[in-house]
């Protein structure tokens, strides 16, 4: 059995990866499982750079092959913002962050509110160059939050094919179509081929 560090402290994220990697000869660990307290700074200007920094940094600390991801929201009308700054956009969090995004877009009509969630996964293995895969989920920014599921920008992210926001669909459905799920399935294909 091969070991793989998932560079997260989030048990929910570990469960998502475990479900997608089911059937592979892998034993998954989190940073907490290995007692790693260090935080690798996300100082890159792209999702790929941040994912690579974390994958290589945590591989160096653990000695294990490491998977790390970076993801966020890109809004076309805002020139791709908030992008890599999604988690700290506007210097606020939670409902205040949703309101901050809505305030930035108050003059933008429905047809110009296109956005996408992006997830880049970096897989770092000793003796190999990091491998990158990407998942994207297109949508539209709503005029007000809708739904109580999910987290982050999910209540504002309307999926045209679902006729609902990410916060209005089931967790199972979200985990099958999300940007992270798409990238994770691509990472699974790499892991399955050694």
UniProtKB/TrEMBL annotation:
Gene Ontology BP term (one): purine nucleoside triphosphate catabolic process
Binding site for substrate: 8-13, 71, 151-154, 174, 179-180
Keyword Metal-binding in annotation: yes
Cofactor binding: number and manner: Binds 1 Mg(2+) ion per subunit.
UniProt: Mg(2+) binding residues: 41, 70
Any one Pfam family match given in the protein's UniProt record, by short name: Ham1p_like
KW Magnesium (keyword) present: yes
Family listed: Belongs to the HAM1 NTPase family.
Summary of subunit composition and partner proteins: Homodimer.
Name the record gives this protein: dITP/XTP pyrophosphatase
Organism: Candidatus Viridilinea halotolerans
């Amino acid at each position: 059995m091969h070991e793989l560090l998932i560079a997260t402290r989030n048990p929910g994220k570990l469960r998502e990866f475990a479900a997608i990697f089911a059937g592979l000869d892998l034993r998954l660990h989190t940073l907490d499982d290995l007692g790693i307290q260090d935080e690798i700074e996300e100082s890159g200007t792209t999702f790929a750079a941040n994912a690579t920094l974390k994958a290589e940094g945590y591989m160096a600390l653990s000695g294990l092959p490491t998977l790390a991801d970076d993801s966020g929201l890109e809004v076309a009308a805002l020139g791709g913002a908030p992008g890599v700054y999604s988690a700290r956009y506007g210097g606020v969090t939670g409902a205040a962050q949703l309101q901050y995004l809505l305030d930035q877009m108050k003059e933008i009509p429905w047809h110009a509110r296109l956005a996408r969630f992006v997830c880049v996964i970096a897989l770092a293995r000793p003796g190999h160059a990091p491998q990158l895969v990407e998942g994207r989920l297109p949508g539209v920014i709503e005029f007000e939050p809708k739904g109580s599921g999910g987290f982050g920008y999910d209540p504002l992210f309307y999926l045209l094919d679902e006729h609902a926001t990410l916060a209005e669909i089931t967790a199972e459905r979200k985990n099958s179509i999300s940007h992270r799920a798409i990238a994770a399935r691509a990472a699974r294909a790499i892991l399955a081929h050694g």
